[in-house]
Design goal:
about 35% helix; Rossmann fold; alpha/beta; six-stranded parallel sheet; 2 domains
């Protein structure tokens, strides 16, 4: 697709937090290659904060589930008269929008069959597959991405009680599915080990993470629970105070990466081949490569299908503590 004569494009990625942040290298590179291009972005209203301050976007278009909103949205998009739509969601919801627009469409290759082979038959056709931002970019085939990481722009300042002379380690213990969550008692034990070394623990999460964050914070002396009601921009500002973040394969992993915070990530049921690893950010990934059952899903499950959960349980707090020290020694 030749963009030189293109004036207006619409990028669609409705959800979720991490997936939307992974589009930001493409947005930035588009802007620098085509400074006058109108770049509009369609996403669900609940994820507005991921892009609300992004200077490379011309207009944010918001998607809500109710029929009236969708009808009004389609009418607005039709009037804009886009030259190209880039559908990075590529599902029935995004197709419900693109099918109504009379312009060329480009769709992200989700590699569903290759994921199916890897999950169900452990046939790995994704070994050489690039990370998701590169795959998003390959939808266009027009240019290469720059060498920078993800973008998340916040106008918030760090919480006033986070002082500059304290070494903070962040914990982001939540994730969308059980098999992607490092056990809370492991986070607690790790936090106690780090506290003995002089680190102060900050715990991050959104609305759905409240219980797990409260539980962990209550058992680590001196820890600070900054779990909030999905205030991503404040979370991002506070993350900047951390020397590193320990997390699961989650949206907050990518948020930390976008803020330039080194991350130690524990992968349970997910694997690197799916492409959702930290992008151009200092990181270390822990995973149990001895298991023939990994991956058991490409998005995560609500329980371990083998009932042993060794993908997480075999990665002890001691292993994580040593890995974090190795990461810190490289900073």
């Amino acid at each position: 697709m030749n963009l030189k004569k293109t004036k207006k494009i619409l990028i669609i990625r409705l959800s979720s937090l991490g997936d939307i942040l992974l589009t930001t290298p493409l947005i930035r590179t588009l802007r620098f290659n085509y400074p006058t291009l109108q770049i509009d972005f369609l996403l669900k209203t609940k994820y507005t904060d991921t892009l609300i301050n992004n200077p490379y976007i011309s207009n944010l278009r918001l998607y809500n589930e109710d029929k009236k909103n969708k009808k009004e949205l389609i009418e607005v998009l039709k009037r804009v008269n886009y030259d190209i739509v880039i559908d990075l969601q590529h599902n029935w919801k995004s197709s419900g929008v693109t099918s109504k627009l009379n312009c060329p469409k480009l769709q992200f290759d989700k590699m569903n069959f290759k994921k199916f082979l890897l999950v169900n038959f452990k046939i790995n056709k994704l070994k050489d597959s690039p990370q998701i931002p590169v795959r998003y970019n390959n939808t266009l085939h027009d240019f290469s991405l720059d060498n920078k990481g993800l973008d998340l722009f916040t106008t918030k300042t760090p919480s006033h009680f986070l002082t500059g002379d304290t070494q903070y380690i962040g914990f982001a213990p939540g994730a969308g599915h059980f098999t992607k969550i490092y056990p809370p008692n492991y986070f607690i034990e790790l936090g106690k080990m780090l506290s003995k070394e002089g680190f102060k623990i900050i715990i991050f999460g959104g609305k759905s993470d409240n219980d797990i964050c409260q539980n962990i914070a209550s058992q680590i002396d001196g820890s600070i629970n900054l779990c909030n009601d999905n205030n991503l921009l404040q979370t991002a500002a506070d993350m900047k105070k951390c020397t590193a973040l320990v997390c699961n394969d989650s949206g907050l992993m990518h948020a930390a990466g976008a803020m330039g915070v080194p991350v130690l990530t524990v992968f349970g049921s997910s694997v690197k081949e799916f492409g959702f690893t930290p992008y151009k950010n200092k990181n270390l990934i822990l995973e149990n490569n001895s298991l023939s059952c990994r991956p058991c899903s490409h998005i995560g499950r609500e329980r371990c299908p083998k009932k042993h959960f060794k993908c997480m349980l075999d990665i002890s707090p001691g292993i994580t503590f040593n890995a974090l020290n190795n990461l810190l020694n490289t900073l």
